[in-house]
Amino acid sequence: MQASLHSLQYFFSNWQEIRSPVEKHSFTENLAQFFQQFDACHRQETKATPAPPPAQKSIDTQKLADFFTALEKPLQASRHSAIAFDPLRLMKLGRDEVRVVSLLSWLLNPHGSHGYGPALQQGLLAHIQQHIPAFPLAAGKRCQVRTEINLNGESGNRADIEMDADHFYLVIEAKIDALEQPRQVERYCEQAQKRARQHGTPWAVVYLTPHGGKPSHEDDSLVCLSWYQLSRILQESMKNHQNLRKNDLLAIQGNADFFVKTYLNHIRSL
């Protein structure tokens, strides 16, 4: 009983000391003091507990020699194989805008010899529809894809790619290193709208650049794309089409698939 009474007195004494206004500190002061004491305790514990010595590691020289010996033949074989074959590099395609656009028009042509039919074109149309809801997802029976077209007969209005289809009229202006000419995109929008009115179809102008930036002209029927974005769009369309033709024995696509994939990888870095 005496011990319990002594403990109770000790508790109230300490509690009174804590409540004393003389010893009361602000939260900031208490927090700073806490971190100071914590750091001191940490330093003391670190000194008292020395770090364990690093584990000794040994190298098995025989196993290392065997590894390099086994690696020698695959390395020699890779130097003489076609694993790194890149036809576009041999063609020196690089950043040649005319040649890059020419191959793009081939891919977007539903009648092209790539074997994908309208699949790649429809991938681009689906992206356009996200920005222009009234734009169709298919060209129809007639779809003429041409490059370097004078939209109104003047050399100053030469568009890179023109798609004149039953269900839409589309112009693609592609840039790699060249800059936009004065009122260039504005003129293309005017001509595209004029041509589309003649057939009563929706129209759009795609402005394709390395970074997907906007031109000086703005229009609701203008869609801006980067080469990287276009590559991703077409690669997804390519993948979906390949999944659909898995069981088609007539789909002999080896060379075409390789070339299309190589081209799409190429334009990703433009």
Account of the 3D structure:
This protein has 270 residues and is α/β, with parallel strands linked by helices. The chain has a domain at 95-268. 51% of the residues lie in helices and 13% in strands. It has 9 helices and 5 strands. Strands 1-2-3-4-5 form a 5-stranded mixed sheet, with helices on both faces. A hairpin with a 7-residue loop joins strand 1 and strand 2. Helix 6 packs across helix 8 and helix 8 (227-244) packs antiparallel against helix 9. It comes from Comamonas resistens. This is PD-(D/E)XK nuclease family protein. InterPro entries: PDDEXK_4.
The neighbouring-strand order within the major sheet is 1-2-3-4-5
The major β-sheet equals: 5 strands, mixed
Give the overall form. extended
Poorly predicted regions are none
Query: Mean pLDDT, rounded to whole units?
Result: 83
**How far apart lie the N and C ends?**
89 Å
Number of strands: 5
- Strand portion, in percent? 5-15%
Helix content: 40-55%
Q: Order of helices and strands, N to C?
A: HHHHHHEEEHEEHH
What would you call the structural class?
alpha/beta
Pfam families: PDDEXK_4
Organism: Comamonas resistens
Protein name: PD-(D/E)XK nuclease family protein
InterPro entries: PDDEXK_4
What is the secondary structure topology, with strand pairs?
Layout: H1 2-19, H2 27-48, H3 61-79, H4 87-90, H5 97-108, H6 119-131, E1 143-150, E2 158-165, E3 169-174, H7 184-199, E4 203-209, E5 222-226, H8 227-244, H9 254-268
Parallel strand pairs: 3-4, 4-5
Antiparallel strand pairs: 1-2, 2-3
Helix pairs in contact: 6-8, 8-9
